[in-house]
Amino acid sequence: MTEPRGRRVLLGVTGGIAAYKAAILARYLSAAGAQVTAVLTDAATRFVGADTFSALTGQPAYTTLWDRPGEVLHVRLAHESDAAVIAPCTANVIAKLAHGIADDLLTSTLLEYQGPLVIAPAMHTGMWQAEATRANVATLSSRGVRFVGPVDGALAHGDQGLGRMSEPPEIADAVLASLAAADLVGVRFLITAGPTHEPIDPVRFIGNRSSGKMGVAIAEAASRRGAEVTLVLGPGGAPPPANIDVMRVETAEEMREAVVRRAADADVVVMAAAVADFRPKVVADRKLKKDAGAPELLLEPTPDILAELGERTRDGQLLVGFAAETDDAEAAGERKLRAKHLDLLVANVVGRAETGFDADRNEAAIIGASGMLEPMRGWRKPELATAILDHVSALRAAS
User: In Å, how far from its chain's centre is CA 297?
Assistant: First the structure.
């Protein structure tokens, strides 16, 4: 089983004010590469419409058993789904699932369905803490259903307490974890992400536009597939994943020291960081004053971390590099792959709107030592992360 790319997720939406958040969840799952099909209960349609989900996912959304005349819809949906999630899930639907009641499209589908199921409850505190609900939750948990939340917070009608639905990113993580392959369990990954900042004086630096989103996406995806991940993260905006060993660095030299110290113990090294190529040869110890005139900066190369790793790669270790290019990215990537002795290289286009640095998408190709593996095209960054790890897994299996 591979990760989210092309996997089918059934999204059940039940009646509650948190139903609007299910649309956000659908977007998160779609952005990760999953194919999402929404099934709404009649009560859910009082809060949000089926057309909303169709527009967000590009897939038909369903509300009744009779939406496709002549077809046994609940059986088809159950058999074609790789994972299922109900968000929000009411106490009523939890009770139905626990007792095998199938009186609408969603519960009929889930009674037929045999795969992983994630439930994100949402209800008032008394309903969640009721003895009947607790018994039903225990029953479903014993069958392998994973519950995410609820959490303490604002409820309907201005109430406060335990029963608020967990936020969509947390629910999405649970669904993606249920889809993730277990092909990287115990594999030790060392991943770099973000830019480096090379100081000019105590307040100014030379840097680049990298946000670290791509490296963080790879770290998240590898962790979901069971890898032991160390992330060396430069300064920038992308928040690091939870439950991953994160080492913060600022400069190229600090990144080099962190990477070289840990590379020997890694099975896979992914150099996704945008390391500055040059740094000031002399760093002023005080802020340079504007009235003193423009300073003359003498630059020197930063250490070539990727080349150093390529020379030191041990048997069985895989080295993945990135090439950020404004022109002829594929050809430049092929040259870099050979020159740096890499196993895989991701050649991505930068300098364009909505792709590359600080964007949610990449225009990229994946190149292996044997040639082109994935031709240049547009990717969502989580989707590209999955593809990179698929090729890493295949290389490890072939070695």
Answer: 39
Structure tokens given for 222: 């590898």
Residue 158 DSSP class = G
Give tens-digit pLDDT for 143-162. 888 899 888 877 777 777 78
Residues counted in the chain: 399
CATH, domain range 8-179: 3.40.50.1950
Do the Cβ atoms of 78 and 109 come closer than 8 Å? yes
Same fold, 8-179 and 188-398: yes
Which position has the token pair 């969603």?
106
Q: How far apart are the first and last CA of the chain?
A: 20
Residue 102, pLDDT above cutoff 90: yes
d(CA 318, CA 34): 27
* Helix, coil or strand: residue 278: strand
Domain residue spans of the chain: 8-179, 188-398
Residue in 228, 245, 172 with CA at minimum distance from that of residue 9? 172
Contact (Cβ atoms closer than 8 angstroms) between residue 27 and residue 90? no
CATH number of 188-398: 3.40.50.10300
| Residue-level pLDDT at 42 | 92
> 208 catalytic, yes or no?
yes
Residue tagged active-site, from 208, 243, 348, 362: 208
